[in-house]
Specification:
InterPro entries: TMEM101. This protein has about 260 residues and is an all-alpha fold. Helices cover about 80% and strands about 0% of the residues. Helix 6 packs across helix 7 (about 160-170) and helix 6 (about 135-160) packs antiparallel against helix 8 (about 175-195).
Amino acid sequence: MAPPSRRQMLRFIVQFGAFILTRFGFWNCFSMLMLFAERADVKRKPDIQVPYLYFDMAAAVLCASFMSFGVKRRWFALGAALQLALSTYASYIGGHVHYGDWLKVRMYSRAIAVIGAFLVLASGAGEVYRQKPRTRSLQSTGQVFLGIYLICVVYSLQHSQEDRLAYLDHIPGGEITVQLLVILYGVLALSFLSGYYVRLASQILAVLLPLIVLFIDGNIGYWHHTRRVEFWNQMKLIGHNVAIFGAVLILGTDG
């Protein structure tokens, strides 16, 4: 049996990235429901008022369903980006739940990155059989959002004791490695913001993100027990990073 060609491998990677990103809405809704059930036990409110919450989740599931079946994927990816933007804004201005500043940066920066990921998908990137030319303006906007996310990661590693300790406790090299990562994230952010070497930057980020998800985000004991991040909130944040991983897979092969 002949090994798969390079073109077949690239097609598989693109399809895998699109598979992850188009299913994000399902995981996000599930983790939100579990989070609010977790809060109900201690009589804490959800981030969004209940009447709007139902419409928000219905919109997310609708967009995810149509994207998963490949029906008008560009339009529903744009709808998913709009839904997540409105949801994040409503959560931010609602103020029903108090978060520490460091946790706000983690939550909202990842939401911005996923919005950017959906804009990349809405541009037509990642389509195996592209019938219409991609919309470069949407892709560029999505890349800028990913760059903003990386800038927030740099900020967190420099100014958030919680994030710094998460890295210092779980990566070899200590402070030197953290500073090297800060420089690397900064360079990658400049690449996404400027539009230069985006494919290479995406490939590097596609290697980094699984390690971050596994060793940093996946350390549930540190975030949940030591930093008091709600269990399902941390699972939701892991889902955000996985969705970002799907986007950089697409940009790394079809950017």
